[in-house]
Write a structure and sequence with these properties.
Strand content of chain A: 25-35%
Oligomer: heterodimer
Order of helices and strands of chain B: HHHHHHHHHHHHH
Number of strands of chain B: 0
Structural class of chain A: alpha/beta
Radius of gyration of chain B: 18 Å
Strand content of chain B: under 5%
Number of helices of chain A: 9
Distance between the termini of chain B: 25 Å
Largest sheet of chain B: none
């Protein structure tokens, strides 16, 4: 079974088409990166896949369940780390983790155990009692990802997880994502080409709401006869702009 | 359990914000002390402690709208609500989670107000307990206003609408600072078409042991609370299903 399969998935706001007839398949355990300039439709796609926005037409099947007909079942299997860090600012790191674990598991004791595990896994143990609002940007992102992972999702959506981070914090998050690779299905949106190249199994390039290309970084470069992923991205994205 | 986990988070967020404590508890108590001091020097029947305390209690409750509205608006702007909307929490989990923690805060706030009033000469009677119960519909009303404001406004707008406008309007039109019949006319008519003066009058009647006079006023407050809560729930649920948080 595929982790994600979209069938002519589309989202329109009035006359503006944010995502147009998206047909995409992501395999279980795959780390899939969605690349695109601002307004390309990446975040809208993530929102439809995570049941935050209803598609205008089409459907998406996540591990056998439709985002339209059975969103509650989909929500039990997924989690998301939004673009903003989305943490409870006056709660400690541990309290944030326990709260999310309780929302998913309904059990306070399990939630405590899971929070302890997550503190260890993501290296948050030393700041467990610190309030979220006192953390650095990098640590808040790390907490945000930990909050998304604590429910043991089968599919994880990471929307621009390293946006605005310094190079060290970004590399730390890369190493966390590397460890997750293969264990769960991850859909990552990013502006950073090197991030997509370093982390993902396959890359999808979106422009003007359409999925223009899907392949490995190496294949995208080969097909566009370019030396770097950035050049390949520009070739694909600008080609679609010129054809508009 | 899900609702409780979310409600517990909301309670902690509000109680750990020092501004909430300053405005929700400190400010009304300062006003109570100040007006009682004025009353001690220049006796004004309106500021006698048994008439003043219900007004200050209702004034204090108006800050509940600011607490809840700000929390919800911030949860929207920081994408915290987006994270939770992608979780298995249902609409009722959200609404109960945001409203339940506010009731004990409101009751605690009113209790503190009455304790302060006891030190300022309010007689200790069972009517204080009745007054605390009579204040609950007013608390529900302000909780509903906060839920509504937080669902449609950003946190700065909530500060303006609930922090400045609502607290002032509810105070001026409550008959706490001046007798409404001294102004009379349209002002008094508007004041009694709104629930704030009724909330104060109902609490004054309860505190005076004049139970028969509670209900005409309490119906107004209950009616407004019900209407505002229903509208707030509908707006919040629509927001959950809309494309923009």
């Amino acid at each position: 079974m595929n982790a994600i399969e979209t069938i002519d998935l589309a989202k329109r706001y009035g006359t503006k088409t944010a995502v147009d007839s998206l047909n995409l398949t992501v395999e279980q355990g795959e780390l899939f990166a969605l690349l695109g300039v601002n307004g390309a439709g990446k975040t809208t796609t993530i929102k439809m896949l995570s049941c935050l926005t209803k598609p205008t037409s089409g459907d998406a099947i996540l591990l056998g369940d439709s985002v339209i007909s059975n969103p509650q079942a989909v929500k039990e299997k997924i989690n998301i780390s939004p673009q903003e860090t989305a943490v409870a600012r006056n709660l400690s790191v541990k309290e944030n983790l326990e709260m999310i674990a309780q929302i998913y598991s309904n059990n306070r004791i399990d939630a405590r155990i899971k929070a302890e595990e997550m503190l260890l896994t993501l290296g948050l143990g030393e700041i467990a009692q610190d309030k979220a609002k006192t953390l650095s940007g990098g640590m808040q992102r790390r907490l945000s990802i930990a909050m998304a992972l604590i429910s043991n999702p089968q599919i994880l959506f990471l929307d621009e997880p390293t946006l605005g981070l310094d190079v060290l914090a970004r590399r730390e998050l890369w190493s966390i994502m590397e460890k997750l690779r293969g264990n769960i299905t991850i859909v990552l949106t990013t502006h950073y080409m090197e991030e997509a190249k370093a982390l993902s199994d396959r890359i999808g390039i979106m422009a003007q709401g359409e999925l223009k290309a899907v392949n490995t970084a190496a294949e995208l470069m080969r097909k566009t006869r370019t030396e770097t992923l950035e050049d390949a991205f520009i070739a694909i994205a600008s080609e679609s702009e010129m054809s508009e | 359990m899900r609702t409780l986990a979310f409600a517990s988070r909301n309670l902690k967020e509000m109680m750990r914000d020092p501004l909430n404590l300053v405005f929700g508890v400190g400010f009304p108590l300062i006003i109570l002390l100040l007006l009682s001091a004025i009353q001690a020097n220049i006796p004004v029947s309106l500021f006698e402690i048994d008439r003043l305390t219900p007004g200050i209690a209702v004034f204090g409750l108006s800050f509940i709208s600011l607490f809840s509205g700000t929390l919800i608006a911030k949860d929207r702007s920081t994408s915290f609500l987006m994270r939770l909307f992608a979780s298995p929490l249902s609409a009722s989990d959200f609404i109960l989670g945001y409203t339940l923690p506010l009731l004990p805060i409101a009751v605690l706030q009113s209790i503190l107000c009455f304790i302060a009033a006891l030190f300022l000469g309010l007689p200790l009677t069972a009517n204080i307990l009745v007054a605390l119960v009579v204040l609950i519909p007013a608390a529900l009303l302000f909780i509903g206003i906060g839920l509504l404001a937080g669902s449609v406004l950003n946190d700065k707008q909530v500060g303006g609408v609930c922090g400045a406008l609502l607290t002032n309007v509810s105070a001026w039109l409550s008959g706490t600072w001046f007798e409404l019949d001294l102004v009379g006319g349209a002002f008094q008519a508007v004041a009694y078409a709104l629930p704030f003066a009724h909330a104060v009058d109902a609490t004054r009647a309860a505190l005076a042991g004049d139970y028969a006079s509670i209900f005409p006023h309490l119906w107004w407050v209950l009616g407004y609370a019900l209407i505002v809560l229903v509208i707030a729930v509908i707006v919040f649920k629509n927001k959950m299903n809309s494309d923009s948080l």
